[in-house]
């Protein structure tokens, strides 16, 4: 993605009433490359105003791809987040128009546009390229064999003195990627050289590298994450691994276990939304208390390491909707109750979390 400098985000029906995660993630961390947003419902508005929080301020919203061409884009990023990650049929004509204009397509859906005969034929005609971010990495499904034909099975160790940190949370979509990117930003500000390991499509689109674990055959998830993290550890003393899912989520519990065990994290950061009483879209499933969530992750870590080897060292909170004084009161109360530093990384920065990480365990 590094070669793409002038991106248009296709975001029809993805701004109001609540902006999509893909849209806000790209606007927060790659707005310097976005020249326009397409949404016919908000055409004529400023993105910062429509999305809120100033995200994308100064970026115009236009009605369609034809209007976006005035900003000389080189690519279009699909900002849609349909249930199941399947391409909505109504978007096919839009994507064909994009490809027909010779623009590259950045696709974070489970639908592989590059494997679609109509899309691939159109791309061949126009010279457009399709980046399917969630492409299954089949080339990495390999098993090393010994001379006797038996598989080589070993758990690689991290470089001594390095730190690997994993974000975990009480739900999906609860700030795990944002937390790690804000810790990375704070580390860079201090002159450190952190490495962010993206494990989902949005983080991969933001950084231009990574692997989406929900695109990997389950037998290989932990091994591929191990490879990604070990490569990062060789280059950096501080490796920040994006989390996925939640141990308490009925359909998202596998991700954090694969990541916890595959990354062999030295410490964890717990993410939680103060305004969310239940699992998103599952109102009959209340979120655990922070104390219970900490216990659950300590137990999960203990299955692979001695007790206390991979502790939660800090808490990242979403305090959106609370006035400043109330947010600070809630943070202070949680710090007192858990004995751990806490912050809202978007409102107040990630410094307390980085301090805790640097004071925590190493490999």
UniProtKB/TrEMBL annotation:
Residues 42-135 form the D-glutamate N-acetyltransferase-like N-terminal domain. Pfam families: DUF1611, DUF1611_N. It comes from the Bacteria. InterPro entries: DgcN-like, DgcN-like_C, DgcN-like_N, P-loop_NTPase. Gene3D superfamilies: NAD(P)-binding Rossmann-like Domain (3.40.50.720), P-loop containing nucleotide triphosphate hydrolases (3.40.50.300). Residues 159-354 form the D-glutamate N-acetyltransferase-like C-terminal domain. PANTHER family: DUF1611 DOMAIN-CONTAINING PROTEIN (PTHR40690:SF1), GLL3100 PROTEIN (PTHR40690). This is DUF1611 domain-containing protein.
């Amino acid at each position: 993605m590094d070669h793409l400098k002038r991106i248009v985000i296709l975001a029809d029906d993805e701004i109001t009433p609540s902006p999509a995660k893909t849209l806000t993630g790209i606007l927060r961390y790659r707005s310097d490359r976005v020249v326009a947003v397409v949404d016919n419902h908000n055409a004529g508005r400023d993105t910062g105003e429509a999305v809120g929080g100033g995200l994308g301020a100064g970026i115009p919203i236009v009605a369609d791809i034809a209007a976006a061409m005035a900003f000389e884009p080189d690519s279009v990023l699909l900002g849609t987040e349909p249930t199941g990650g399947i391409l909505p049929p109504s978007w096919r004509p839009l994507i064909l128009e994009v490809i027909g204009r010779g623009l590259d397509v950045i696709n974070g859906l489970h639908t592989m546009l590059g494997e679609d005969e109509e899309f691939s034929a159109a791309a061949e005609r126009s010279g457009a390229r399709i980046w399917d971010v969630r492409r299954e990495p089949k080339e990495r499904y390999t098993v090393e064999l010994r001379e006797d034909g038996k598989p080589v099975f070993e758990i690689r160790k991290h470089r001594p003195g390095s730190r690997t940190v994993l974000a975990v949370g009480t739900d999906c979509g609860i700030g795990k990627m944002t937390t790690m990117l804000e810790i990375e930003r704070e580390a860079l500000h201090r002159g450190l050289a952190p490495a962010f390991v993206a494990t989902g499509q949005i983080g991969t689109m933001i950084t231009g590298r990574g692997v989406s674990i929900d695109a990997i055959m389950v037998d290989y998830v932990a091994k591929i994450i191990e490879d990604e993290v070990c490569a990062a550890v060789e280059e950096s003393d501080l490796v920040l691994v994006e989390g996925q899912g939640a141990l308490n989520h009925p359909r998202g519990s596998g991700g954090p276990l694969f990541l916890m065990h595959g990354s062999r994290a030295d410490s964890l950061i717990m993410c939680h939304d103060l305004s969310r009483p239940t699992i998103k879209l599952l109102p009959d499933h209340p979120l655990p208390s922070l104390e219970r969530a900490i216990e659950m992750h300590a137990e999960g870590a203990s299955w692979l390491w001695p007790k206390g080897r991979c502790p939660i060292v800090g808490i990242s909170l979403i305090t959106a909707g609370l006035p400043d004084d109330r947010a600070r009161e809630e943070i202070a109360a949680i710090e007192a109750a858990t004995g751990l530093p806490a912050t809202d990384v978007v409102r107040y920065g990630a410094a307390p979390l980085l301090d805790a990480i640097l004071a925590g365990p190493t490999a």
